[in-house]
Design a protein that fits this description.
668 residues, alpha/beta, nine-stranded mixed sheet
Amino acid sequence: MSFTPDASALRGLPLFERVSLRLLEDLVEYASQNRWWSDDGDGEPCRSRPLVQRMGLLRRDMPGGTKTQRNFTADWLESALAASFTLAHAFAGDKCEDLFKMLVGGRPGGAAAAPPQTHWLFLAKDPRFAQTGETPVAMDPVEAAGLLARALDRIGGDVGERGAVASFGANGLSLQCWNGEHPLPPIALPAASLPSYPATREPSAVYERVHQELQKALGVPEKTIFHVVCVNPVSPLEVPAWWTDRWRPDFHRLVYLTRPGGSLRPPGKLMRLLRRGAWDPDRADGPYFTSVVPTVVMPPTLESRRGAVLTKPCFVPDLKTLETEPLVDESRYYDANAPIERRSVDQRLRRDLCRIRFDPNFPLSQKPEITRTLDRWARAVTNRQVGVALSGGGATSAALVPFLEALQAEGIPIDVVAGFSGGAILGAYLATGKLADYLQWCRGLVLTWLTPAAVLYSRAIETFIDCEFGGANLDELDVRFVPMTVELRTDGSSRKCAVIGGTVGEGVRVSGIALGVFSPAERRGTRYVDGGVAMGVPTEALPRYGADLAIACNSIVAPPTRLLQDMLPPPFGQCLRWMPVTSAICEHLTDRFADYWVGFLTMLREAARSGGRDAQVYYEVSSEETPFIDAFLWYRMKHIRDTAAKGRKWQDELDRSADLWSTLRRSG
C-alpha cells in the first residue's frame, strides 16, 4: 500500500513553494476535518466542488490500483489563510492566482489578494510560573515583549519587517518601537480614537491604524510588515474590557511564557483570543498553524552535573529519565474510510515550543549567547526555523562537518537537529555549539575504544556523552535536539520514535544500538535499537519538532568496488594483492562477506535517499571521502573532515540552502 503524496510532496507545486513544512503539515490536517467535506446527498463525493486531490492532497493508492479521495468545500483554504498571518503571506502574489482561484471555487481575489501587513501577537505568562520552593528567572511580561519585538527587528529589518510592542492601558493602547537598540517615544492611542465596525466587531481597522502610526514614527515604506507584540501589564491573561466591548479577540498568535517543567498549555480563556480557524474551543481542535508558541524561560547558563554522572552507581535503573514519542502516522489523514486521528493539543504545543535564556543582570550586548536564543524565539513565531537531519555512519559523520560549517558561515541558522547513531553524536555537539570539540583527537580515541566496549556494555557510551555535556537533559538545550530510535515492544510490535526526554547520553545511546552487536538498551521490557532500522535519514522528524526548512545530510555510501582488497586501507589491501595464496583464500572465504557489506551499505544509502525526498535540500558525501572502514576509526575524524572539505562537493547544496533560506525569510 502506498500513499501519494504527503505534505512534503506539495512543495513541488508553485503555490506551495514558499510555505514552511510545519504549515504544510497543518494545512493537510486542517483540510482533513469533517467540516470541510462535501457530498451530493447520496454519500458520493460532490463532483462540482474544487478537488483538493488535484494537487495530490489527501489521496490514497489502495492495493489493486483503486483510489479513495475526498472533496472539500471552497471555504477550507480561505479559512486557513485567514487564521494564519504567515500562511497568508506565503500564498500572496499573482504567480499562482489561477490555481488559488481553483482551490477556493473560482472566486475572484480571495484571501491571497491582500495579506495583512500587521502581525498581531499576544504575550502572556503562566500564572504558575513560580512554584513553591523555586527561584525562577525573573522575567516581566512587558520586558519579555520588548525583547521579542527587538529580536523581530534584528531578524527581519533587512527584509522590510519591524517589531513593536502594544501595551493595553485602562483606556487605550501605548505603542513602543525602536530605532536599532534605541527606543522611540511611546505613541498613545486612546480607545475613543480607534475605529470600529459595530456590526461585525472586526478589529482590522485598528490594525491599519496601528500600522499607520508605526510607519509614521519610523519613517519606513508603506509595505513594511509590523510584528506587534501585545501585552496587558495589569491583567496579563486577558485583554481589557474596553477592547472586548468593541472588538472580538482576533490575535494571529499567542506567545505563552512558562517555566522549565511547567505546563505548555495556556488557560482556555487565552486560547479563545486566537483567530477563528486557529483554535476551535468547542472541539478543542488545534491549535493550527503554530498559532501558540509556548516559550520556556531558562536560566542564563546550563548547570553542569558532570560530577553526578561520574559518581552514579551502576545499579541505578537503566534509562531512568528516557521519554520517547512515536512519530505520527500521516497515512491516516489520506484514508477516506479510516477515522481521522489528529495530533493532540499537547503534541502540537510540544512541536512549536521554543526555549530562551535570560539574565536580568546583564545587557544583551554582554551576553551574545542569550541574544542568539532570543533571535531563535523570533524565528519560531514567524515560521523561519531551519532543521538538519543527520544519518548514521559512525565516524564517517565527520564528513558532514564542512557542509554544516558552511551553512553557519552563510548565515543560515540551525534550530532543530535530528539524528541517530553516529549522526546523533554529531548532532549533540552541533546542538550545543561544540562542533570544534567533536573533531578533537582525544575524543575520537575514546570513542574508538568505546565502540567495541559497547558490545558488552553500551551504557559506557551514555556515560561518556553525559560527561561531555555535563549531564544535560534534552529539554535544557537551546537548540532542539531529537535523537531517533526504534522501540521493540513486549507485544512483538515495533515503532519508530523520537526521544523527547532524558539526558543527552540516554538519547544518543538508544539511537545507536546496532542490532545484534551492541548490548541491549532496555526499560520495562521495551528494547531500543538503532534508528537506522526504520529510516535512512530522519527528515520526517524535523517539521514535527519545529523546523520550517529541512536539510538532510547522509554520510552512508556504498564502496566504489566490491573487491575486499580495494575496500580495506592501503597497507592491508596491498598485502592481499601481493600474497597470491592469501589472496586466493580470501577470494573464497570473504567474497560473500564483501557482497553482503556492499549490499547492506547500498540498502542504507537508498533508504537515506528516500528519506531525503522529504527535505528541501539533500546532501550526500562521496564514497571516496568516506571509506567504509573509517566508520569504526573515530580518531580519524579530523582527517575525514579535512578530506571532505577539500573537494567542496557540497557547494550546489549550499547554494540551494541559501536560496531557500532567503525565500523563507521573505515569505512573511
